[in-house]
Specification:
Length: 530
């Protein structure tokens, strides 16, 4: 996030949510948004293929066709430019590339976008005016925006919208991705990406590589690594022989699960490190038992870039060990000794090679976390990014044209499937489906289908149905509801026995060409009553 969570409750005068079911997937943040709307009169814009809870209290709700995010946001910018609602001073002083964007969005009139997205032109105009006319406005998004073959384009386009209106670098504004897991921000910060070392320092930069070679005393590859989805594809083709999986469950979470299973079966060696025997761990040659958050010391960096202490509350069960101990011993046995005495010692090494964390110490975050970047021990941390200037100097507009999703409905697969999360379950259900209380509330998967489509197919609420894509099929019960569009169905991805990702697409053309993320949110399917 460029800004902090509490600003969504106290400072934002308008909030634009796109591709985030915030009250279910980020309920604390969702509560703060609702509080701002109810108590302070903040305006709320919601854009989502489903009529989610926050749509009911929105000043304008835009139910758009999945995969048409760029067309929708470009049309909002078309309105802002044509009606003179843009921040000319901010654009002139702090950005570059505006003219190219203005030229592209000129053709995305609200009427043109209505034909692409299904959103009425007047709703697009209303949303654009609310966002642009607010004293300060925030954009929040989640994986509904990113999990597309055009995910990078989608993110660049909402950044364009913030630049256009000067909604960056001030309290209550910003472009704020809501992370899907508690420490995914911290994992990325520490280099758990195929293209960067800690603090997003590029693997391809020879000066950066030299710095880390000196710090670690080894020669490092000049080549970028591969994303998880690409690694699975390479394993399928025999180009990768071994995979180590840590705290991930690709046998439920990755697209085209039949393809994933074939790829893992094709490996010479699979190692899994986790707290439960997941569906992926069941296929492993070796399983290392890790520990839960309550059994470890260290730090988590949350979605607002706040680095926070994590403290061990209970001793590890049985032979389970903290992740850092497992990795250190594995590395040592493979020939690179790692002899750390504690997580704090590891953190202090991290600080020496991670400029944005350099000023953060365990002592400073004993009571309350700090936002990075925090370059020195005297620095207070940075809750708001880009106050005076952007990292590159000027903020860069990107002229983005709308592209259709990689797979669209046709005569054989006439319905569009999108997927997401439930309030009651988390990711692949490894933990939450072992919770008796949570599993009692939602013990099985369901397919949300519009009443008109259900009637057309002879399906009643609660009927068992089969959903079929080009990759495979699953069987689950139907829930007839008008929160989805007539030509869209929705299902959750937490349930291994009716796994949505049997249906989703892992073909190379369906991956975002920049980030490599799969198109989980758009698949062509047919629905059959059983």
């Amino acid at each position: 996030m460029t800004n902090s969570i509490n600003e969504l409750q106290n400072d934002a005068k308008a909030i634009f949510l796109i591709g985030t079911n915030t009250t279910e997937n980020h309920p604390v943040i969702g509560y703060k948004i609702k509080s701002n709307v109810r108590k302070n009169g903040a305006k709320l814009i919601v854009a989502d293929p489903r009529r989610i809870e926050l749509a009911e209290m929105a000043d304008v709700y835009m139910q758009f066709r999945p995969g048409t995010d760029v067309a929708l946001v470009n049309a909002m910018m078309n309105v802002i430019i044509s009606e003179g609602l843009l921040d000319k001073e901010f654009i002139a002083n702090r950005t570059e590339g505006f003219e190219a964007v203005a030229e592209v969005v000129a053709k995305y009139t609200p009427e043109a976008a209505e034909k692409i997205t299904g959103v009425p032109a007047e709703d697009i105009r209303k949303a654009a005016r609310i966002y642009a006319e607010a004293e300060v406005a925030s954009i929040c998004y989640a994986m509904g925006l990113t999990q597309h073959s055009t995910g990078t384009d989608n993110v660049k386009t909402v950044c364009n919208l913030a630049l256009l209106t000067g909604n960056l670098g001030k309290p209550g504004g910003g472009v704020n991705p809501l992370r899907g897991q508690n420490n995914v921000q911290g994992a990325c910060d520490m280099g758990a990406l195929p293209v960067s070392y800690p603090a997003y320092q590029a693997v391809s930069n020879p000066d950066v590589r030299e710095k880390f070679e000196k710090a670690w005393g080894v020669e490092l590859s000049p080549n970028n690594g591969v994303t998880l989805t690409k690694a699975i594809n390479m394993a399928h083709h025999g180009e990768i022989k071994s995979i180590i999986v840590i705290g991930e469950n690709p046998m439920v979470s990755d697209p085209d699960l039949h393809h994933v299973e074939e790829a893992l079966d094709n490996l010479e060696f699979l190692m899994v490190q986790d707290i439960f025997l997941t569906e992926t761990a069941q296929k492993a040659d070796v399983v290392f038992p890790g520990v839960s958050f309550a059994e470890k010391d260290g730090t988590f960096s949350n979605t607002e870039r706040r680095v926070q202490r994590v403290r061990q509350a209970i001793n590890p069960r049985g032979d389970a060990r903290p992740d850092w101990q497992i990795l250190c011993e594995l590395s040592t046995r493979l020939g690179y000794p790692m002899n750390y005495a504690s997580p704090e010692e590891i953190f202090n090494e991290m600080r020496t090679v991670t400029p944005s964390y350099a000023g953060i110490t365990y002592g400073r975050i004993e009571e309350c976390g700090l936002h990075w970047p925090c370059p020195t021990e005297e620095h207070p941390g940075t809750p708001i990014l880009h106050k005076e200037k952007f990292n590159r100097g000027l903020g860069l507009f990107h002229a983005i044209d709308f592209k259709e999703a990689a797979e669209l409905p046709d005569a054989e697969y006439p319905i569009l499937l999108t997927t997401g999360r439930s309030l009651y379950h988390y990711h692949t259900g490894t933990m939450t489906r072992r919770s008796v209380g949570l599993d009692a509330i939602q013990p099985e998967n369901e397919l949300q289908i519009h009443p008109n489509k259900a009637a057309e197919l002879g399906i009643n609420d609660g009927d068992k149905v089969r959903v079929v894509s080009r990759r495979g099929s699953i069987e689950l019960k139907a829930r007839v509801t008008d929160i989805v569009d007539e030509n869209v169905v929705f299902t959750f991805f937490h349930f291994a026995e009716a796994a949505a990702n049997v249906l989703t697409n892992a073909a190379p053309e369906s991956l975002d060409p920049v980030a490599g993320i799969p198109e989980y949110k758009v698949s062509a399917v047919r629905v059959e009553k059983i």
